[in-house]
Amino acid sequence: MEQNKQRKQSKENKEIQEIVKKQIRQPIVTVVGHVDHGKTSLLDSLRDSCVAQGEAGGITQKISFTSYPMSQLKAACPLIDKQGIKLDIPGFLLIDTPGHAAFTNLRKRGGSLADLAVLVVDINDGIKPQTAEVIQILKLNKTPFIIALNKIDNISGWNKKQGNIKELIETLPINVRQQFDEKLLTFIGSLHSHGFEADLFYNINDFTKKISIIPCSAKTKQGIQELIMILCGLSQKYLEKKLELSNQAKGVVLEIKKGKSISYAECILYDGILNKKDKIVIANFLKPEQPVVSSIRILEEVMPLCDKFKPVEKATASTGLRLQLIEKADILPGMPFIRYDGTEENKKQILEEFKKIISENIKTDKQGIIAKADSLGSLEALITLLKEANISILKAGIGSINKSDIISAKANLNINELDAIVVGFNVSIDEDAAELIKSEQRIKIIIEQVIYKLIENLVEYRKEKTSEIEKSRLMELATICKLEILSQYVFRNSNPAVFGVKVLGGKLTQNLPLITNLNERMSRIKNIQSNNKPVNEAFESMEVAVSLPGINFERRIKNTNIKFLYSDISESQFKKFKKNRDLLSSNEKTILQEIAEIKRKEKADWGS
């Protein structure tokens, strides 16, 4: 029985090998660039859709795909036939990525999932920080790319008529052409500083030596034909061998979608041929040694230029798929999958490949914060961004923030308070975790649906927290404080004197030594009361009662020019505060200067 099964499987494998022999798949083209530079809008102008309007904050958050067959390419770009470009590629699979460079890290084993990239740059903004990061990652991954220099229609006086982009540029009015040339040359110069030579596509003879720049507008569709033509030409000339199909079907799960009665996985098949009757093995991030092995109940392929799917018996890479699977447990977005021939040997090989893929992209540290995201691709992106921001990661995972994450963050309080943080990209908080947070408010939770905002918020919080910790340590050595004496509130004249004060700045603490505005030393604060209750400290604008032993209020303070009390700090303490002025508020700086002026009366060079 087992032998018959293996013979049947061997026959099917040979049939697949015959099918894929010398067959060319669609190149996978990823569209990348800075947030708001028009990536999704550029794709919209190709497929006449309105995807950009539906994105969170107008920013693409999940990687999506569009199949663009050759018949549609030729219809959208008559220049292909007009220029006599011979094409064997069946079309393109376009991947629209979120704005940040890290999302170009959607990877297969051995490199980027993308064969070619379109870097979208707003001609009026040039290379922004995120654009620079995209360029570095493309360079690191050795991903060939072209540049869509978008939003040319925003140049003042731009001619918005349709036609050949080269002729349009050459016939611009002198003042408009001058603006265009200045922006173009500035951009080319910036690109040169990143190690790339670039020029307008129609000026390039050798595309292996210079990056093609295609001026365009997603809004007016100017330059879109030329963009398609360059993509087709480069793919045909330089990628053909790389595009040959193998006999092993491989893909990546992009998203798990759940309906009322069914759930399905949206995937990219990036190599081989997948049949409806095939079994697949999907990596299990939660339990790497126990991958998900499943048959396919329904196999659907994305239809051209839209997000609708049609049932098929088999699908050929590269393409977008929607799969209904028999086994659904533990399947997470971003997980790789491979066709399974049913043998233990094949399963071991697949497991080894999965191990390499995940270990390459998910690297944590011995100490650091906790990071959670909604998919493997998102988690890879988050980890990349955190590393760029020099933030270490103790634990990284997929799914909602849970009780275990909070416990891990709580443990960090005893090691490094800056790491008592859980960040979540596009995730929620479990009920148990939310309950635990209430009892431990020192743990910081930062959740965002826009990844670059998450990183910005985290960096800003850590910066503030660092200043807070440093200031706290500084204040342990000495405290800056200014008190206004409220003479109308005298509760006890002496032994000790108890009277009201208002904190004008800094912090009032027990045992704080005081001086007057006339540079007279007073005793230390014995007790502080607020609303008839004892407190350990009081802050700016609070009115409290203080007790000072060894002071007779009527003799020492009443009917004198003593109006204010200050913390008594030494010269060395003053110098420490002065050295760390950035940690002080503007009011604290003013009080520090007032104390220095008072002290100079007893020592001329004090505080200089």
Gross morphology is elongated
Task: Report Rg.
Answer: 33 Å
Number of strands: 31
Helix content: 25-40%
Query: What is the CATH topology descriptor of the largest domain?
Result: Rossmann fold
Low-confidence stretches: 16-20, 49-61
Q: Can you give the mean pLDDT?
A: 84
Percentage beta strand:
25-35%
The CATH architecture name of the largest domain reads 3-Layer(aba) Sandwich
DSSP helical segment count = 16
How far from one another are the termini?
Answer: 95 Å
Under CATH at level 1, the class of the largest domain stands as Alpha Beta
How many structurally independent domains?
A: 4
User: How would you classify the helix and strand content by structural class?
Assistant: alpha+beta
CATH homologous superfamily caption of the largest domain = P-loop containing nucleotide triphosphate hydrolases
- Largest sheet properties: 9 strands, antiparallel
